[in-house]
Design brief:
Radius of gyration of chain B: 20 Å
Oligomer: heterodimer
CATH superfamily of the largest domain in chain A: Thiamin diphosphate (ThDP)-binding fold, Pyr/PP domains
Helix content of chain B: 40-55%
Number of helices of chain A: 17
Largest interface: A-B, 54 and 59 residues
Largest sheet of chain A: 5 strands, parallel
Helix content of chain A: 40-55%
Distance between the termini of chain B: 52 Å
Strand order of the largest sheet of chain B: 3-2-4-5-7-6-12
CATH architecture of the largest domain in chain A: 3-Layer(aba) Sandwich
Order of helices and strands of chain A: HHHHEHHHHHEHEEEHEHEHHHHH
Structural class of chain B: alpha/beta
Structural class of chain A: alpha/beta
């Protein structure tokens, strides 16, 4: 798919000054011809999501018939390999354990707040596993499990919610953006990272994450449009968990689906069962591959459910029925995968026990790490405002130091 | 965007696009000839344009983008010729969305680039406010110094050009109030070059406030000497960044001004001299960081001060300057510090702006008010 405006980022070496003249834009025609060539379908069929969401393993843990797995031309998905499936299951179990451990730590007063992704673990795990080492992820505040699955230290990940500092890991080291509490602002940062990489000729793909409520924000629109116009390798991954704190999706959008928004930007969209990690790995894996091949950006909407309240400060019973929550218990991503893998003979008792042990080790790491009282340094307030503190900040830092010294002396 | 403004700036001595383009092409060759370049008369616009071109020559990670900055060269022609010289992957037009421009620049800066982006007009930068305040200003802090954002947001600002509404705001206080942003504003042609190079070199994000009514002001500058100074400063790790300048020395009172108000303050000082009063004019240059030392040294010497700014006076940069000087120089003051600022009204329509803008007479009235003995 080529939705190229007049900006095609050539290698700077090939830039001759005369190429500064705007080239003619034939976006629709290019997109159509390339989609037709690649998949033998119309550009509309390529950009519009498949008629149904992509689901490979049903809620009861059985494999859907091949014809139902996503078999339309241009929307064909293949089953990931056995080892990938077991690795994903391991991360699912760890992710669930992390969510429940962190919620417990909040109840015990060890953390200020934790927005749990309980129920959304399949999305979290697939978001991390679909990326290669050189790729970037831009997560939201609810994506701690994805951040950890990407390899960031669990205790460092929790710094934000523990209240020691705003971020606890180095985004550049892990190629994971700082978890973002403003909505969709991070999507544009992902677009910028992808743009810089493209200008240097690197094959980096960026996965930029947000929720259903966030699709109402202006930066959602600007990010998708910029990525499309500059033809950037970004996969926008929307976890539609049905609620923006208390407000259901129907109050955010009356689009046929959030994935349908893609066509308005000239990119391909797809819907996927957000509780089916097999389908998520297939759909996100293919989206990342297409983006890397230059057919990006793409938009993937995962249909899932936030099983718990927005945070510990929220009371979900005020805006939704227990019966609705019960319906989603039956679609749980972990039990589904457990049944499927056991049925395939890929998960014996020994393997399951080893996975549970790993999950317990991560939980223990969180308990130990967050029980420890790490002293904060008040002088850190002034260290990271500018690369070199200004005279005013030095003055204020000395004032605080003096205040603390007098307090200490008075003890 | 605004025909009124284009017309007005042409009336203020705008060179034609063709002339400007030819000049920009010449600028590319000028680097080699820098050594033998002597003083020449150029505009602030040209100085800014040359600063960007030189920075782009020096560092392939410097990129310029924004609205109409490509083939058009910007509505004020500040980016003129950059696409032609450096190609459209280094200077390019974006979709018309300011939050997108700033947000994308954040990501590019996170990933090894030094974006220099243009907000077309002061008031058109407001859609980007969240990106600027929540991310540009805070990323270094949020990541405990792990992520630096070496980016420059150029904002043509302030009035005096007969612009229609939303084209003449003095928005510097919003940025100066935000911890983590540097805020520079040049008032001279030489500073246009010097300060924009320093802003691009900065590892911290800089709001670069360009007084649009001064774009076509001219001065004799030696670009070769400015380039040599920049190179020497880079080598020594020194610069004039964050320093105020004494724009005109004097002994009786200090006029403290920045950006578009500096020429007005200088005109007031010239008029006062004819009446036998010697006024020192301080050009603040850098609002953040603020040079208390230079400003206070002047006020301690003269014992009297007037702060001049186009922006509304209430909760403004001028109020901050008064507060700082008062805290540091109280016992040196012979009179309360006065301010001459814009009124606390939305920026007026073109036919009313001369009532609003601080002018020479209003400044001299304030000076007269400084409790002189006789």
């Amino acid at each position: 798919m080529t939705i190229s405006a007049d900006h095609t980022a050539q290698d700077p070496a090939t830039n001759d000054p005369a190429s500064g003249a705007p080239t003619q834009s034939h976006s629709t025609e290019d997109a159509a011809s390339e989609a037709v060539r690649k998949f033998g379908i119309t550009v509309e069929d390529y950009m519009l999501p498949a008629r149904h969401q992509i689901q490979i393993v049903g809620p009861d843990g059985t494999l859907n018939p091949h014809t139902e797995q996503g078999a339309q031309p241009g929307h064909e998905y293949t089953l990931p390999g056995d080892e990938d499936l077991v690795a994903a299951y391991e991360q699912l179990v760890i992710g669930r354990r992390v969510n429940d451990q962190n919620s417990a730590l909040v109840r015990q007063g060890r953390m200020a707040v934790y927005p749990s992704s309980h129920g959304q673990e399949a999305c979290q795990v697939a978001a991390a596993l679909c990326l290669s080492q050189g790729d970037w992820m831009f997560p939201t505040y609810r994506d701690s499990v994805a951040v950890m699955a990407r390899g960031v230290d669990p205790v460092q990940t929790m710094t934000l919610f523990r209240g020691d500092w705003h971020g606890g890991y180095n985004p550049a080291e892990h190629k994971v953006g700082i978890q973002c509490t403003p909505l969709t602002t991070q999507l544009l940062h992902g677009v910028g990272v992808a743009h810089a990489a493209k200008l240097r000729g690197e094959d980096t793909v960026v996965l930029a994450m947000c929720g259903d409520g966030a699709t109402s924000e202006g930066d959602f629109h600007e990010a998708l449009n910029f990525a499309a116009v500059f033809h950037l390798p970004v996969v926008f991954f929307v976890q539609n968990n049905q609620y923006a704190i208390s407000v259901p999706l129907a109050h955010q959008s009356v689009a046929p689906s959030l994935a349908h928004k893609a066509v308005g930007y000239g990119m391909a969209g797809e819907r996927v069962d957000g509780n089916d990690v097999v389908a998520l790995l297939a759909v996100l894996g293919r989206a990342v591959k297409l983006a890397r091949e230059g057919s990006g950006p793409l938009l993937v909407e995962a249909h899932t459910y936030r099983m718990q309240a927005h945070t510990n400060a929220d009371d979900a019973t005020r805006y939704r029925q227990d019966s609705e929550v019960a319906e989603w218990v039956a679609k749980d991503p972990l039990s589904r995968m457990n049944t499927y893998l056991a049925g395939r003979g890929l998960l014996d008792d020994g393997r399951a026990a080893a996975i549970a042990e790993k999950a317990e080790a991560v939980a223990a790491q969180l308990r130990d790490g967050l029980s420890e009282d790490v002293p904060v340094d008040p002088q850190d307030l002034f260290k990271y405002v500018f690369s070199t503190p200004t005279a005013q900040l030095k003055e204020q830092s000395a004032m605080l130091a003096d205040e603390l010294a007098r307090e200490e002396a008075a003890k | 965007m605004s025909p009124t403004i284009t017309t007005s700036s042409e009336a203020n001595g705008n060179v034609s696009a063709a002339t400007a383009r030819a000049a920009a092409t010449a600028a590319a060759a000028a680097e080699q000839k820098a050594a033998q370049t002597g003083a020449q008369t150029i505009t602030l616009a040209k100085a800014l344009n040359t600063a960007m071109a030189d920075a782009m020559h020096a560092d392939p990670s410097v990129l310029v983008f924004g609205e109409d900055v490509g083939m058009l060269g910007g509505v004020f022609r500040i980016t003129d010729g950059l696409t032609r010289t450096f190609g459209k992957s280094r200077c390019f037009d974006t979709p018309l969305a300011e939050s997108g421009i700033v947000g994308m620049a954040v990501g590019m800066a996170m990933n090894g680039m030094r974006p220099v982006i243009e907000m077309q007009f002061d008031a058109f930068a407001y859609p980007a406010f969240e990106q600027i305040v929540s991310h540009v200003a805070k990323m270094h802090n949020r990541t405990k110094g792990a992520v630096k954002l070496p980016m420059v947001i150029r904002v043509p600002y302030a009035g005096g050009i007969g612009g229609v509404e939303h084209h003449c705001d003095s928005s510097e206080a919003y940025y100066a109030h935000t911890a983590g942003l540097k805020v520079f504003t040049p008032a001279t042609v030489a500073d246009g070059y010097r300060m924009l190079r320093e802003a691009i070199d900065s590892d911290d994000p800089v709001m670069f406030m360009e007084p649009k009514k001064l774009y076509w002001s001219k001065d004799q500058v030696d670009l070769g000497a400015l380039r040599a100074d920049h190179a020497a400063n880079t080598e020594r790790g020194t610069s004039s960044e964050g320093r105020a300048a004494v724009a005109r020395p004097g002994t009786d009172a200090t006029l403290i001004a920045y950006g578009p108000s500096v020429p007005t303050a200088l005109a007031a000082a010239a008029a006062a001299a004819e009446e036998g009063r010697s006024l020192e004019v301080i050009d603040v240059r850098s609002i953040v960081p603020f040079d208390d030392e230079t400003v206070c040294a002047s006020v301690r010497k003269t014992g009297r001060a007037v702060v001049i700014a186009e922006a509304h006076g209430f909760a403004s940069v001028s109020s901050e300057i008064v507060a700082r000087v008062q805290e540091r120089c109280f016992h040196y003051l012979a009179a309360p510090i006065r301010r001459v600022t814009g009124f606390d009204v939305p920026y007026p329509a073109p036919k009313l702006e001369h009532y609003y803008l601080p002018g020479v007479d209003r400044i001299l009235d304030a000076v007269d008010d400084l409790q002189w003995e006789n």
